[in-house]
Amino acid sequence: METSMAIDNRPPAKLEHYHPSRVLTLVYQPFALGTLEILAYIEAKINTRKQNLFGYTLFFIATLLVLIVSSLHS
After folding, report:
1. What secondary structure, in 3-state letters, does 19-54 show?
2. What is the pLDDT of residue 29?
3. Counted domains in the chain
4. Is 1 within 8 Å of 57 (Cβ atoms)?
5. 10 in a structural domain
6. What is the pLDDT of residues 43-65, one digit of tens each?
7. How far is residue 29 from each of residues 11, 52, 64, measured CA to CA in Å?
8. Of 12, 43, 57, 72, which alpha carbon lies 20 to 30 A from 19's?
9. Do residues 35 and 58 make contact, with C-beta atoms less than 8 angstroms apart?
10. Quick check: helix, strand or coil at residue 8?
11. How is residue 12 annotated by DSSP?
């Protein structure tokens, strides 16, 4: 049985040179390792609530920076 719609797996022209998995890995890993080292070192001194807020804030900032850098380079 044939379908009338053709499946096109190509990305749009704007996204051809964008590799989100590479960019995310390069940006995320240093932050993740640094945060892990800092929080492991001072785990007993920091409140769990502060750890969560710090982690979510850092993740939000890193994600926002990925979007900004991506939009500047496109």
Report:
1. CHHHHHHHHHHHHHHHHHHHHHHCCCCCCHHHHHHH
2. 82
3. 1
4. no
5. no
6. 767 778 887 898 899 899 989 99
7. 26, 18, 15
8. 57
9. yes
10. coil
11. P
Q: Are the CB atoms for 69 and 23 separated by under 8 Å?
A: yes
Radius of gyration of the chain (CA): 19
- Tell me the three state secondary structure of residue 71: helix
Q: What is the pLDDT of residues 3-37, one digit of tens each?
A: 555 566 665 565 556 666 666 666 778 888 888 88
Assess contact for 74 and 18: CB atoms under 8 A. Answer: yes
pTM: 0.42
Residue 3 lies in a domain: no
Query: Encoding tokens for residue 55?
Result: 């982690």
CA-to-CA distance for 19 and 39, rounded, in angstroms?
A: 30
Would residue 11 count as lying in a domain?
A: no
Domain contains 61: yes
Domain holding 31, by residue range, is 19-73
